[in-house]
Design a protein that fits this description.
The complex is a heterodimer of chains A (235) and B (299). Chain A has 235 residues and is an alpha/beta fold. Chain A has ten helices and ten strands. Chain A has a six-stranded mixed β-sheet, with helices on both faces. Chain A has a four-stranded antiparallel β-sheet with strand order 2-1-4-5, with helices on one face. The chains are: A alpha/beta (235), B mainly alpha (299). At the A-B interface, α2, α3 and α6 of A face α6 and α7 of B. Bound molecules: adenosine-5'-diphosphate and magnesium ion. Magnesium ion binds next to α1 of chain A.
Chain lengths: 235, 299
Amino acid sequence: MITIEDLTVSFGAVQALRNVSMIAETGKITAVLGANGAGKTTLLRAISGLKEPKRGTIRMGERNLVHRRTEDIARLGIGHVPEGRGVIGEFTVEENLRLGAMMAKVNLQKGLEEQYEQFPVLGERRKQHAAKLSGGERQMLAMARALIAKPSVLLLDEPSLGLAPLVTAQLMHTIHSLCESSDLTVILVEQNASSALRIAHHAVVLHVGRVVANDDASVVAADENLRQYYLGLVE
Amino acid sequence: MDPFLTSRIVTDILGGLTNGVSFGMVALSLVLIWRSTGVLNFAQGAMPMFATYVGFALLSYHFGYWACVVACIIAGLLIGGLTERLLVRGLYGKPEINPIVVMVGFLIVLEAVAAAIWSSTPRSIPSPFSSIHWQLAGKPFALSPFTVYEIASALLVMAAVAALFRFTKLGLQLRASALAPEVSRLLGVRVGRLLTLGWMLSTVVGVITTILVASNFFTGLTPQVMDGIFAYGFIAAAIGGLESPVGAIIAGVVLGVVNQFVTDYVNQNAVIIIALAILIVSLMIRPSGVFTKSTQRRV
Ligand SMILES: Nc1ncnc2c1ncn2[C@@H]1O[C@H](COP(=O)(O)OP(=O)(O)O)[C@@H](O)[C@H]1O
Ligand SMILES: [Mg+2]
């Protein structure tokens, strides 16, 4: 479980997050929605220690994550698939996965097999450079690279960006089944609110750095005001 | 015996190779640091020079050659690591303090301090290998036991570095930290430590080069011993492409051979002009270096 209380993050005079409080429950998908510039990426970067908050706490279970190094936070079991996916194009698919498995105590061969089973296309292309993959395949690689370390929390920053609707639907399905089959806690950042709300249990809506809604995904999805003003979902 | 082996051409090629592997090693050590930290290390000759003085100071306590070599390598690891931690770490991502200026300053300080402590008079470092050239049918052959030692050590170091990057977990993490530091940290890679390690490694490559150069009976160890070799290594790294370790080595070796032919057939003073001409022409043809694959950098 990730508990965020009163989190404020600023870039100079710009407050990217203001007094944000939210909970991402164990084994559930929490969607973080909002327009471009709402502060979604900043929230994930603060959790991973890439951006130092000005105020507030971020806890995983009982542990405070604030002021810890990014690499130590990763080693506590937080997988972060960054905006733009962060796949290393000069590395082969398998080298990317080996890098992901580096800090884990899992058997590398077994870990690779599991990921190739989950994402067969990666197995077929294991020797290819990641730069040669399509957008959807890169997203799968980025997720597999995070999952191979067996994280307990997975942070996904706009995984659907640039993907065709059908590929997005498959991806959401994969995220959903990952969560079902384990105790993985997922924080799913999306601008694409409708696909995220379809699989999320809980939803937080950000608007210029503030939380404007924090409720069950079904409640958020049914709220006409939110749909119209903050999520861009006009019927 | 075949007179071909003692011909002028073979002599020039082998002599050039002997110099070229030193250029290639310096180029390699520059590329290691450039790739992992984006710093062009102008003290890449001076740091190993200093470590070599420190290690061979043990000679006066009656330690043998190989014990001194080990001491040099340890000194190199320390100097490389401390330089990164204390001098360079504050410079990353700060274009306003130019790392080139800082490293040139460091080069000057190191050479001055070395001259103050150990004087500028060449010190001879007695290597266990003879520098007397072999004879073939009464004619001098281009190689001596010492030059074979020089070339073999250089090849060994290059192969070890290549194997490290290609086949080990550590190599994978070093490459990842250089290509995508933030992503690497998100995957739990301790990038900060790896940068220090990169500086340590490249300084050791430099130390071995310096030992080989200074153990040559005709050179000896001086505070400026690496200046000329650094210049050629730098040109080789630029020709080979700063991104490409293999390119840097090949460019160094080729430059060594060309250098030898120009010295022999034209004259010594033409060498640097020809080297710069090669650099300019190759940069005009391939601005990112002759051996750099023009692949996309990050995705
Ligand atoms: N590195 C940065 N420097 C300055 N301002 C930033 C930086 N990163 C984000 N911001 C600002 O913080 C706000 C939130 O950005 P971001 O978290 O990227 O939003 P989102 O991911 O929801 O699109 C924006 O106003 C953005 O301009
Ligand atoms: Mg974003």
